Amino acid sequence: MSVHPSVWSFRSAAPASAPARRARRAFTLVELIVVIAIVAIVVGFTLVALRSARQGSRVARCLAQVRSLQLAHLAYAADHRGFLADVGLPHGGIGFPEQSFITTLRPYFDSPAVLRSPLDESPHWPSGQGGQGVPVPGTSSAARVTSYGMNDYLSRSFSVAADFGSPIADRLARIPSPAATVMSVFMAEEGAYAGSDHPHVYQWAPPGPPGVPGGPGSALPPIQAASQLQTDAAGGKAKTWDARSNYGFADGHVGTLPFSEVYQTAEINRFDPAVAGSFGARMGG
After folding, report:
1. What is the maximal distance between C-alpha atoms in the chain?
2. Terminus of the chain with fewer CB atoms < 10 Å: N or C?
3. What is the distance between the alpha carbons of residues 187 and 139, in angstroms, rounded to a whole number?
4. Total Cβ atoms within 10 A of residue 191
C-alpha cells in the first residue's frame, strides 16, 4: 500500500517542529535578567514614592498639630486679657514646668498627644511613651515632654527684650505684626534643648550688618539654630538655610518653611516682634 507523499511529509516534519516551538516559548538567561532588572527598578521607584508619600503625610499631620497648638494659644489669650502663655522647661538648670504652656494650655488641647509630633524621633521620650528613655544631655533623668516650643521673644520670663530694656511682647496687643511673627517651633530632638520648651534666638547670630545666604559668615545662623530647633524636621539638609520645619505664627496660621524664610540676621528675622513685620520687605519679597 502506498502512502501519499503529502501525508508522509506532514508526519515526518511534526517531531522536528515541536522542539522549535518550545524553544521559542522559553526565556533566555539574558531575557530573564532584563525582566528581573525592570522589576527591581519598578519596585525601587514604588518604595521611594511610598516613603515620600508617608513623609508628606507625617509633615501634614505635624502641621495640623501646630495649628491646634496655635488655636490653644489664641484661646488662652482670649481668656486672659490678651496675655500669652509662657515657657518654663529648662535647657540646663532649674525649670518651672508649672508655668510652661505645656501645663497652662492643657484645658485648650483636644488631646495632650498634640504635644508630640509624628515627625519626632527623639531618643529622649520616656520608654513608657514609646521612647528610648535616654535622659536629656546634662541631666540624670529629665525626659522630653514636648516636640514643640515657643519663641522666647514672646515669653514673660525669658524674653531677651527685657535684657535690652525693650517692651516684652507677652500679649497679642504688643506684637506689631502677628501674622509675621513666629510663635511655635519644633525643638531639637537631641542635645540640651531636647528637654526645653523654648530656644534662645539671640544666640543664633550676633548683631551686625544685614547678610544674605551664602555670604561671608552666613553659615552661623542655621548651624546655631539647629542646636536648639529641629530646623530640618520637615525635610531639607540639616544645619543649612534650606532645612525645612513647621512653624506657627501669632495670628494662628501655620506653614512649612525653609530656615531662610524665618531667619536671616539678628536684624532680619520673624522671631523678634520689633522687626518681624519688615522681614518680607527687607528680603525684597
Report:
1. 126
2. N
3. 17
4. 18
